[in-house]
Amino acid sequence: MELTDTQRRTLDGLIGSGDRPTFAADLSQRLRDRIESAVRELELAEPLWLGKEKLNQHGRCEGLFQSVLAGESPPFAHSARSAHGVLLHKAIEVEVGARDGMDPHEITRVAVGRVLEREERFEEYWRELSAAEQDDVLMEVVRRVALFQGSFPPLKPLRRELSPISELRVRAELLGGDLVLSGQIDLVLGMPDSVEPNRATRLVVDLKTGSAYPEFAEDMRFYALVMTLRFGVPPYRAASLFLESGTWQAEDVTEELLLHAADRAIGAARAAAALSNGRDPALTPGVYCGWCSRAATCPEAELPTAG
Ligand code: SF4
Fold first, then answer.
1. Average pLDDT over every residue of 30-58
2. How far, in Å, from the CA of 35 to the mean position of ligand 1?
């Protein structure tokens, strides 16, 4: 298959080939035991769901984390930003399964139709947009689909080798569901190895627009942990791919990386339990105060000054 230089770079450098690492068969169980033994004694008021956002909120400020756990944030409503994300993910699903020759415009149109059919909140948002606003959203998604196609080798002809899955929802239930670690991974590539099932054969990828943040690496470590708990074998690599540049930030998955991710989840669960049992949150302000629901009343809020 003919590839552009950029697609070849992704195929060789990010997806890679050759021997994949093999992990101990008991690794998943040891990670599970580590988390469950640390969390078992906590008095969690109710089942605690942790995803990458909540873990990041915990890392930023306990006050922000507590406000999210308490449901103080306004209910989710679509914005142009979230619409771009939802549509791009659906468009990649279309791209992976599409018949030949669909261009980014057609892929985007099909994606919009599918999301409108299945997501009531998106349908409400879309209905309120003017035709020009809908066109703006569509064009942004077309641009992102074109960037995706320019970054990855065509996934359809490689379906047999790469087994691409978009928007994979994964969930690990611990302590009978008292603690749930969950996520939705933009793209998973790679088939399980039926001969050597403990060989890591999957790559997990999050697609990003805009600048890189240090938290992106933590997001991907968390996904690697949830994949390990869910499937019993880790991915071999976890990466954020930046659509504008076609570059990526990737880490090979190791046992140390998974232990780090497990300990980060344990830290958040401990904090959630302590906060729900009356401990005051440690307030550590930052730029994120601007979108914290407690900003108006928090004594430590760090907000931009007018002018
Ligand atoms: S306003 Fe800032 S310091 Fe206060 S709780 Fe929110 S994020 Fe934390």
1. 93
2. 28
